[in-house]
Amino acid sequence: MAKIAFIGLGNMGGPMAANLAKAQHHVTAFDLSDSAVAAAVEKGAHKAATAAEAVKGAEVVVTMLPAGKHVREVYEKDVLPNIGKGVLLIDCSTIDVDSARHVAALAAKAGLEMIDAPVSGGVGGATAGTLTFMVGGGDAAFAKAKPILEKMGKNIVHAGASGNGQAAKICNNMILGVSMVAVSEAFMLAKRLGLDAQKMFDVVSTSSGSCWSLVNYCPVPGPVPASPANRDYQPGFTAAMMLKDLMLAQQAASAAGASTPLGAEAAQLFSLFVNSGNAAKDFSGIVRMLDGK
Amino acid sequence: MAKIAFIGLGNMGGPMAANLAKAQHHVTAFDLSDSAVAAAVEKGAHKAATAAEAVKGAEVVVTMLPAGKHVREVYEKDVLPNIGKGVLLIDCSTIDVDSARHVAALAAKAGLEMIDAPVSGGVGGATAGTLTFMVGGGDAAFAKAKPILEKMGKNIVHAGASGNGQAAKICNNMILGVSMVAVSEAFMLAKRLGLDAQKMFDVVSTSSGSCWSLVNYCPVPGPVPASPANRDYQPGFTAAMMLKDLMLAQQAASAAGASTPLGAEAAQLFSLFVNSGNAAKDFSGIVRMLDGK
């Protein structure tokens, strides 16, 4: 098994590192939070006092950090100066495409293979080891990374060259955010027109309006028993995370010269929802705002 | 078999009347266009010189008209004054919920059963007899109408009381219009980020952004061979029809006090697309506008 350095042990990174340790990899873990490191050690990881110490002697480095600036800083200051040839770099953070490509270029310059591999599936998927990874990077790097990723996820998709993992994720999540608002608007309109939620679900789920937001994650209680609507919008996937991804999509669209009017409007609506004290609610809770509550 | 009066023989009504005649119903057909009547006669219908003449002696009246005002006028002036007790009224037009409920109330006052039964499936579905009907009206009327509708469609859904067929259709099509724009925006963003359309399709169609607009009606050429994108956006379902349905949704939302920000934005975007000379293009062609073409 591999010697893996894991940097970033938050809600997602913690259980991901635990799954690698459970699979008998030798995991050396670092996070700015001592308690996060302690929790990882309890799950079988080894403690590192700094990121630089974590990567020394590692064969694989996995990072799971909040934003592009953290990824740039950790790779520039801690990872790249302290590793040798042949180390595989895997960044699982969801960050802007430009930062992902910038760091991948630095790695390539140092003769190292790197992939961007943002995930979907939330804390539940991270804990259960059923995440989806959307991977950008070369074929050789993808092939090497796949067995590692398979210890943390079930669906490993290669989306092309460096940065394309991030691109695929923000494009997917932009559709998700827009469609959740659209489904929510339609349910609230249907309610005011006297159309029962279950009837509405039965018609639309078998018609051209059908989508994942409706069928797997219905924002009103009833039709889909497992959806967060049935547990007062406990996440799931928080509104704050959806807003982050929609803002990354807007940033990418602006930089790349793409027009995304509905993506922009959805970002503004989620901003309104998050800034009304709902950051930690499930993103499907936006239906309550659209209902005037 | 029944004596059926069929009023409104356009792109949809023509083939629907033909399917009733093909099923050995005695169809008496009327339209303001003589050539539309002549085409129906060629398919086995009998000619009527006026709407009033068409409904005399009929057991069932089917209407397929452009808008609420036509439905109100035809039922008030031609249908209701010229029929006896026990006639079943079926309005297949896509119109505003208020007009549908107004006409149904007039019918009820005259002791007649009526359903609103707007369709989805386009000209192809009308010709093949594979339409979906979304039906509003009482249980008895629905039960009586069902065998008639089954000669024109495959999926007959009862959405509740009068007007709920229209409500279900506009709620469904509002989600459809929004999701088509969202999918189009995401493909154009992906393209500018260097993510191949087929890769994008492969990732999103198996992820949380999946929706009918992507999987069955993909707006870019390639991934879904049967979609209008592969035949230069020949419809299919025209942009003009999508705009009509989105405007009906906006009218209903305004009247009922529902907030539909993305529905409103999608209506404006389709208005822009239609008013740029694209009324007769398939609605998925809006991807070209979002691409700056």
Descriptive report:
Chain A is of the alpha/beta class and 293 residues long. The first copy, chain A, is elongated and about 65 Å long. The longest helix of chain A is centred in the middle third of the chain and has 29 residues, at 164-192. The first copy, chain A, folds into 2 domains: 3-161, 3-Layer(aba) Sandwich (Rossmann fold), CATH 3.40.50; 167-290, N-(1-d-carboxylethyl)-l-norvaline Dehydrogenase, domain 2 (Orthogonal Bundle), CATH 1.10.1040. Chain A has helices at 13-22, 34-42, 51-55, 68-79, 97-109, 122-128, 139-149, 164-192, 197-205, 212-215, 239-256, 261-278, 286-290, and strands spanning 3-7, 26-30, 46-47, 60-63, 88-91, 113-116, 119-120, 131-135, 153-158. In chain A, strand 8, helix 7 (139-149) and strand 9 form a beta-alpha-beta unit. Chains A and B meet through helix 8, helix 9, helix 10, helix 11 and helix 12 of A and helix 8, helix 9, helix 10, helix 11 and helix 12 of B.
Question: What topology emerges from the helices and strands here?
Answer:
The structure is a homodimer.
Chain A: E1 3-7, H1 13-22, E2 26-30, H2 34-42, E3 46-47, H3 51-55, E4 60-63, H4 68-79, E5 88-91, H5 97-109, E6 113-116, E7 119-120, H6 122-128, E8 131-135, H7 139-149, E9 153-158, H8 164-192, H9 197-205, H10 212-215, H11 239-256, H12 261-278, H13 286-290
Parallel strand pairs in A: 1-2, 1-4, 2-3, 4-5, 5-6, 8-9
Antiparallel strand pairs in A: 7-8
Helix pairs in contact in A: 1-2, 1-6, 4-5, 8-11, 8-12, 11-12
